[in-house]
Amino acid sequence: MDFEGKATAPTATDNREFAKPCTTRKPLELLRDTEALLRRPAVATLMPILPPKLSNRLQSASFLAEDSLDELAEIDLEKVSDFELRPVRISVGLTFVGFGALMILVLLLYLSTLHPKLTTVEQIKEYWYQYVWFVSLGVAGMFILGREAMRPIKKLR
Length: 157
Fold this sequence. Notes:
The protein is an all-alpha fold. It is 64% helix and 0% strand.
Protein backbone atom coordinates (compact mmCIF):
# COMPACT_ATOMS: atom_id res chain seq x y z
CA MET A 1 0.00 0.00 0.00
CA ASP A 2 1.22 3.45 -0.88
CA PHE A 3 0.43 5.93 1.89
CA GLU A 4 2.21 8.90 0.39
CA GLY A 5 -0.26 11.29 -1.16
CA LYS A 6 0.28 12.94 -4.45
CA ALA A 7 -0.36 16.64 -4.90
CA THR A 8 -3.31 17.10 -7.17
CA ALA A 9 -3.83 20.81 -6.52
CA PRO A 10 -2.05 23.31 -8.75
CA THR A 11 1.23 24.50 -7.33
CA ALA A 12 1.73 27.99 -5.96
CA THR A 13 4.65 28.62 -8.26
CA ASP A 14 2.52 30.36 -10.86
CA ASN A 15 3.85 33.84 -11.51
CA ARG A 16 1.25 36.31 -10.32
CA GLU A 17 1.54 40.04 -10.51
CA PHE A 18 0.78 41.94 -7.36
CA ALA A 19 0.07 45.63 -7.03
CA LYS A 20 3.25 47.58 -6.64
CA PRO A 21 3.46 49.95 -3.67
CA CYS A 22 3.25 53.59 -4.55
CA THR A 23 6.77 54.85 -3.96
CA THR A 24 6.34 58.25 -5.54
CA ARG A 25 4.42 59.74 -2.60
CA LYS A 26 6.32 61.13 0.33
CA PRO A 27 5.46 60.12 3.92
CA LEU A 28 4.32 63.65 4.79
CA GLU A 29 1.96 63.65 1.81
CA LEU A 30 0.50 60.37 3.03
CA LEU A 31 0.06 61.90 6.48
CA ARG A 32 -1.71 64.92 5.02
CA ASP A 33 -4.03 62.85 2.87
CA THR A 34 -4.85 60.34 5.61
CA GLU A 35 -5.56 63.09 8.12
CA ALA A 36 -7.77 64.88 5.62
CA LEU A 37 -9.73 61.69 4.91
CA LEU A 38 -10.44 61.38 8.63
CA ARG A 39 -10.94 65.07 9.45
CA ARG A 40 -13.25 66.21 6.66
CA PRO A 41 -16.09 63.72 7.32
CA ALA A 42 -15.82 64.34 11.05
CA VAL A 43 -16.08 68.10 10.59
CA ALA A 44 -18.97 67.70 8.11
CA THR A 45 -20.81 65.50 10.61
CA LEU A 46 -20.24 67.80 13.57
CA MET A 47 -20.99 71.13 11.86
CA PRO A 48 -24.81 70.82 11.83
CA ILE A 49 -25.14 69.70 15.45
CA LEU A 50 -22.82 72.25 17.05
CA PRO A 51 -23.83 75.79 18.01
CA PRO A 52 -23.00 78.33 15.26
CA LYS A 53 -20.11 79.96 17.13
CA LEU A 54 -18.46 76.63 17.89
CA SER A 55 -19.21 75.39 14.39
CA ASN A 56 -17.38 78.37 12.88
CA ARG A 57 -14.39 77.79 15.14
CA LEU A 58 -14.29 74.12 14.17
CA GLN A 59 -14.37 75.02 10.50
CA SER A 60 -11.61 77.62 10.87
CA ALA A 61 -9.50 75.07 12.79
CA SER A 62 -10.08 72.61 9.96
CA PHE A 63 -8.92 75.17 7.38
CA LEU A 64 -5.87 75.95 9.49
CA ALA A 65 -5.05 72.23 9.73
CA GLU A 66 -5.43 71.95 5.95
CA ASP A 67 -3.01 74.82 5.33
CA SER A 68 -0.51 73.61 7.92
CA LEU A 69 -0.44 70.07 6.57
CA ASP A 70 -0.10 71.33 2.99
CA GLU A 71 2.90 73.35 4.11
CA LEU A 72 4.29 70.34 5.98
CA ALA A 73 3.86 68.06 2.96
CA GLU A 74 6.15 70.31 0.92
CA ILE A 75 9.13 69.50 3.18
CA ASP A 76 11.60 67.12 1.61
CA LEU A 77 12.77 64.80 4.39
CA GLU A 78 15.87 63.82 2.40
CA LYS A 79 17.19 67.37 2.63
CA VAL A 80 16.82 67.69 6.42
CA SER A 81 20.27 67.26 7.93
CA ASP A 82 21.24 65.75 11.26
CA PHE A 83 22.55 69.13 12.41
CA GLU A 84 19.14 70.77 11.80
CA LEU A 85 17.45 68.20 14.03
CA ARG A 86 19.72 68.88 17.01
CA PRO A 87 17.51 71.57 18.67
CA VAL A 88 14.46 69.34 18.29
CA ARG A 89 16.18 66.39 19.94
CA ILE A 90 17.31 68.59 22.83
CA SER A 91 13.77 69.94 23.23
CA VAL A 92 12.30 66.45 23.28
CA GLY A 93 14.81 65.31 25.89
CA LEU A 94 14.13 68.33 28.09
CA THR A 95 10.39 67.81 27.67
CA PHE A 96 10.64 64.20 28.83
CA VAL A 97 12.74 65.15 31.85
CA GLY A 98 10.53 68.11 32.76
CA PHE A 99 7.26 66.24 32.31
CA GLY A 100 8.51 63.29 34.36
CA ALA A 101 9.65 65.58 37.19
CA LEU A 102 6.44 67.60 37.08
CA MET A 103 4.26 64.52 37.22
CA ILE A 104 6.23 63.10 40.17
CA LEU A 105 5.63 66.39 41.98
CA VAL A 106 1.92 66.27 41.13
CA LEU A 107 1.76 62.67 42.37
CA LEU A 108 3.49 63.63 45.63
CA LEU A 109 1.12 66.57 46.07
CA TYR A 110 -1.85 64.31 45.40
CA LEU A 111 -0.64 61.74 47.91
CA SER A 112 0.18 64.29 50.61
CA THR A 113 -3.20 66.05 50.34
CA LEU A 114 -5.63 63.22 49.67
CA HIS A 115 -3.86 60.35 51.45
CA PRO A 116 -1.97 61.95 54.37
CA LYS A 117 -2.38 58.91 56.63
CA LEU A 118 -0.33 56.65 54.36
CA THR A 119 3.36 56.31 55.12
CA THR A 120 5.90 56.79 52.34
CA VAL A 121 6.34 53.03 51.95
CA GLU A 122 2.56 52.52 51.72
CA GLN A 123 2.29 55.32 49.17
CA ILE A 124 4.95 53.71 47.01
CA LYS A 125 3.28 50.31 47.37
CA GLU A 126 -0.05 51.80 46.33
CA TYR A 127 1.18 54.00 43.47
CA TRP A 128 4.37 52.24 42.31
CA TYR A 129 3.11 52.01 38.73
CA GLN A 130 2.84 55.79 38.39
CA TYR A 131 6.24 56.30 40.02
CA VAL A 132 7.83 53.89 37.56
CA TRP A 133 6.21 55.61 34.56
CA PHE A 134 7.26 59.09 35.57
CA VAL A 135 10.80 58.11 36.56
CA SER A 136 11.12 56.19 33.27
CA LEU A 137 10.10 59.30 31.33
CA GLY A 138 12.78 61.30 33.10
CA VAL A 139 15.42 58.63 32.50
CA ALA A 140 14.48 58.42 28.81
CA GLY A 141 14.86 62.19 28.56
CA MET A 142 18.27 62.00 30.22
CA PHE A 143 19.33 59.32 27.74
CA ILE A 144 18.24 61.53 24.83
CA LEU A 145 20.16 64.49 26.26
CA GLY A 146 23.22 62.35 26.96
CA ARG A 147 23.21 60.95 23.46
CA GLU A 148 22.92 64.45 22.06
CA ALA A 149 25.79 65.67 24.25
CA MET A 150 28.06 62.93 22.88
CA ARG A 151 27.39 63.77 19.23
CA PRO A 152 30.07 65.70 17.40
CA ILE A 153 29.28 69.41 17.18
CA LYS A 154 30.67 69.98 13.69
CA LYS A 155 28.07 70.58 11.00
CA LEU A 156 27.42 67.35 9.11
CA ARG A 157 26.53 67.35 5.42
